[in-house]
């Protein structure tokens, strides 16, 4: 999936940046495992600590206070923030609970992923099962699939089933995305 994403982005002359929390750099590693990734992948931020989400990615303190870091609002702010700070066409974000313990009253496997692009941003809520490794791997696959969907015009392209146990997808009406 990472190779396909990077190939499409390169063919369009577009770029990608990542903002990761629970995936801890795994998404960036998946992308940089692909030879030639530097044609489209510009970099990423591992914002494991809340203060990094706020100070580096620009997640508003009010978002953290009102919604927490395991939230749609935080995921969207992370994706927008990394896109803006890296001057990339697309920004991806991952935030959630990989375990072993709940966080902010949210169960292990509760994950938000987001994509921000030229015409807006979209977030999806995942309800994942498994251990930390399985949750982190599934999160990477889901956010890349979300980006593929956006690159295909946001029409789903028959790929909805590829999002592991996605329980809700939220679209924000900003420009044309959604």
The biggest beta sheet, please? Answer: 6 strands, mixed
Q: What's the helical proportion of residues?
A: 25-40%
Beta-strand residue percentage: 15-25%
Q: Mean pLDDT, nearest integer?
A: 89
Listing every helix as H and every strand as E from the N terminus to the C terminus, the arrangement reads: HEHEHHHEEEHE
Distance between the first and last residues' Cα: 22 Å
Detailed description of the structure:
With 178 residues, this protein is of the alpha/beta class. The chain has a single domain (2-171), classed as Maf protein, CATH 3.90.950.20. The protein has six helices and six strands, in the order H-E-H-E-H-H-H-E-E-E-H-E. It has a six-stranded mixed β-sheet with strand order 2-1-3-4-5-6, sandwiched between helices. Helix 1 runs parallel beside helix 6 (132-151). The longest helix has 20 residues, at 132-151. 44% of the residues are buried. The model is unreliable at 156-178 (pLDDT under 50).
């Amino acid at each position: 999936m990472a190779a396909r994403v990077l190939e499409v982005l390169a063919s369009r002359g577009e770029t990608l940046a990542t903002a990761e929390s629970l995936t801890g750099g795994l998404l960036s590693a998946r992308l940089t495992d692909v030879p030639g990734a530097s044609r489209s992948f510009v970099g990423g931020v591992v914002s494991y600590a809340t203060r990094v989400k706020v100070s580096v990615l620009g997640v508003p303190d009010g978002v953290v206070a009102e919604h927490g870091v395991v939230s749609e609002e935080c995921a969207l702010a992370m994706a927008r923030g990394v896109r803006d700070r890296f001057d990339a066409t697309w920004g991806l974000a991952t935030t959630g609970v990989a375990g072993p313990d709940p966080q902010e009253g949210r169960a292990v496997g509760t994950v938000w992923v987001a994509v921000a692009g030229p015409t807006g941003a979209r977030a999806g809520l995942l309800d994942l099962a498994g251990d930390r490794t399985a949750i982190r791997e599934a999160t990477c696959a889901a956010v890349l699939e979300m980006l593929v969907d956006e690159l295909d015009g946001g029409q789903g392209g028959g790929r909805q089933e590829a999002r592991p146990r996605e329980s809700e997808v939220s679209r924000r009406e900003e420009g044309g995305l959604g």
